[in-house]
Every structure is written in C-alpha cells, then in structure tokens.
Automatic annotation (TrEMBL):
UniProt keywords, alphabetically: DNA-binding, Transcription, Transcription regulation
InterPro entries, A to Z: Bact_HTH_transcr_reg, Chorismate_lyase_/UTRA_dom_sf, Tscrpt_reg_HTH_GntR, UTRA, WH-like_DNA-bd_sf, WH_DNA-bd_sf
Biological source species: Pseudonocardia ailaonensis
Protein name: GntR family transcriptional regulator
Pfam entry (one): UTRA
Boundaries of every HTH gntR-type domain copy: 14-82
Length: 245
C-alpha cells in the first residue's frame, strides 16, 4: 500500500546484507505470483537466485514476520493477502472487517463470571470482588485467526449477557441493543510477543510480534462500560488513525 522501505533499505555505508538482496528478489517474485500462490521452496529459490539456502531462509523469515507470506499447516508456504486494517475508533471488530469485504467471525474460548481484582475494579469503577463477566474469543477473518480478545464487563450492568448474547456475533451490537451508548474510549497500544497459550490459540509461533491493545470505554454519563485486552497478529493486522488539526 505504501511502497517499500526508504531508499530500498540501503545503509549509508552502501553495504547491503546478502539476505536483504535475496529478500528484494523474493518480494518481486511474490508480487508476480499473487495472493494464495505457492512460494517456491528454499532449495528452488537458492538455485533460482544463485544464493545459499541459509540466506534464503533468513529472507523468508523476515517476509513471514512482515506478513508478505504465510505457512499453512501441512502445506506449502503461500503468498499472503493484504493485512486487515482496523481504524482506531469506537467500533466493533465485526464492522471493521466487513467494511473491507471480508467475513468476520469469532470462536468462543470462555464466557465466565469472576470476581474483579483491584486493577479491574479501578478501571470499571466497581468494588473489588464485584462480579465481572469475562468473554474471551478468537477473532477470525474469512475463518483465519487474526487475534484474541478478552472483554471484562460489570455483571450488574449486563445481567442477561450470559443467556441472551450469541458469542459468534458483535458484542458492541448487543451492548447497544441494551440501551447503552459508547461515547469515548482510551486505548493503549504496544508490541509484545504472544505467550505459548496465545500462540497455540492463534496457530502461530511464539516469536511472532503482536499488537496489544488495552481499552476502557465509557458512556455519555462517564460510566465505564468495558475493559478490553485485544491481541492482534502483527503479520496479518495493522491499525490506522485519522488525525485532525
């Protein structure tokens, strides 16, 4: 979307690592092949470009981390499609994915009650030990895992959620249906590595960089609605913000 790295990644001294030259060649090939096409094997790429397999392996690893290619379980490496672009705004994941012509989905991991610890209670302005509803789901796009979302809500405010809410649908649509209006939110963003459990749920390696978002949302009266921890795959997801001056 935005082109390649500045000045093609050439350092001031002019010396370019061999793996980076290989990466440039492979990127050109990937662009020619198109989304979903099989990427040639390390051996084939090494022979094609006249370089060592170790050099090819390092180049391919960078392209995996960047989301240009992806590995399917039991199948060859293939060219990846465009990343999901999610605006930094008060909208649901479902709305963001649908806007890009893809099919959103969610797989339920847990929907349970638990007592609020002091940190959660502080964010939601409830008493420590008060009942919380914890909803954890795998976020999907065209059936591909994109992220893992944990949402904490005061049980007293949403007493029917466990019986009336379909975990495969938009939580924001359900909340709005109860008469609660989202007004503002604070979101903290950082990069992290997935834990072994998170990597297992998302079907990725534990060394894959992730985008971690922690959000607290409020209604127009200033009452907290939710606390959300969202973990998105760095190779398949990007964020966009519109700024005004």
């Amino acid at each position: 979307m935005w082109g390649g790295p500045v000045r093609s990644g050439v350092p001031a001294g002019g010396a370019v690592p061999k793996y980076y030259l290989a990466k440039i060649e492979i990127v050109g090939l990937v662009d020619e092949l198109g989304e979903g096409a099989a990427v040639p094997s390390e051996r084939e790429l090494a022979a094609r470009f006249g370089i060592a397999r170790e050099t090819v392996r390092q180049a391919l690893q960078e392209l995996l981390v960047e989301g240009r290619i992806r590995r399917r379980h039991g199948r060859a490496t293939v060219v990846a499609g465009p990343k999901i672009v999610q605006p930094l705004s008060i909208e649901s994941y479902t709305e963001g994915v649908r806007r890009q012509g893809r099919t959103p989905g969610r797989a339920l991991v847990a929907l349970e009650s638990q007592p609020a610890d002091p940190v959660q209670a502080g964010h939601l302005e409830i008493e420590p030990g008060a009942e919380l509803l914890h909803l954890e789901r795998i976020l999907l796009s065209d059936d591909e895992p994109m992220g893992l979302e944990s949402t904490f809500l005061p049980a007293a405010r949403f007493p029917l959620l466990r019986t009336d809410f379909d975990p495969g649908t938009s939580l924001y649509a359900y909340i709005r249906g109860t008469g609660v209006t989202f007004h503002r939110a604070t979101e903290h963003i950082e990069t992290v590595l997935a834990s072994p459990r998170e990597a297992d749920l998302l079907g990725t390696g534990p060394a894959l960089p992730m985008l971690l978002l922690n959000r607290v949302s409020w209604d127009p009266q200033g009452r907290p609605i939710e606390r959300v921890r969202s973990l998105f795959r760095g190779d398949r997801f990007s964020l966009v913000a519109e700024l005004g001056g």
